[in-house]
Specification:
mainly alpha; 10 helices
């Protein structure tokens, strides 16, 4: 009897966790991270405020769970755009897919970068793994451009390349530096990838 009660309690907790993540995901998609309030979540889920903290360690964990779903959708978008051909074409296709995803899911996309853990709090391993899987999508074209670099060096370079693309996309969508119409932003992103690819090929030739 006790085992049955324990199983039923675990099932209720799992159901509540999933329900809260679903609601939080919908809230972030509609209102951004700033719209995520514990009391509103509890009301929408039909649970007590304290129940949130029995399902999750804290709100940071809930946000990370929502962001992990966003990372998974972004990963799928990059996979769908991937071109198994020349490295430059593959990188440009994924960069454009990243821009398209940011435009389509802007509040959720921004939440990936707006959320901050408390000072000193470590990033959970499961979330770091989800983030690293995203970066790993750049490994194949980078290996083609820099055949002499090992996996560790390529992983570091993948983060640098991601940061460069993200910077162009974020500044372009915010238009804080200058007005950036969609066509111009598309062109700027293409120029960035071509310049980076050319630079990496020159670096590869230098290392031979």
């Amino acid at each position: 009897m006790n085992e049955k009660n324990a199983d039923a309690g675990a099932d209720r907790r799992t159901h509540l966790r999933d329900r809260l993540i679903d609601i939080a995901q919908e809230t972030v998609a509609a209102q951004g991270l700033a719209g995520l309030k514990a009391r509103d979540l509890a009301a929408a889920a039909g649970c007590a405020l304290g129940a949130i903290y029995t399902a999750f360690h804290d709100l940071d964990e809930l946000v990370l769970r929502v962001n992990a779903r966003t990372l998974a959708r972004l990963e799928a978008a990059l996979d769908a755009a991937f071109v198994d051909s020349e490295a430059e074409q593959a990188l440009e296709a994924m960069a454009r897919a990243y821009l398209s995803f940011a435009r389509k899911e802007e509040p959720s996309w921004r939440a990936l970068f707006e959320h901050r853990l408390p000072p000193g709090a470590p990033v959970p391993a499961w979330y770091a793994d989800a983030r690293n899987r995203l970066f790993s999508r750049l490994d194949a074209p980078l290996a083609q451009l820099l055949p002499g670099r090992d996996a560790t060096a390529r992983a570091a370079l993948a983060r640098t390349l991601f940061s460069a693309v993200h910077g162009v996309v974020a500044l372009g969508l915010e238009e804080k530096i200058a007005e950036t119409p969609p066509k111009l932003l598309d062109e700027q992103l293409g120029v960035l990838i071509r310049l980076l690819a050319a630079g990496l090929m020159m670096e590869s030739a230098r290392l031979i």
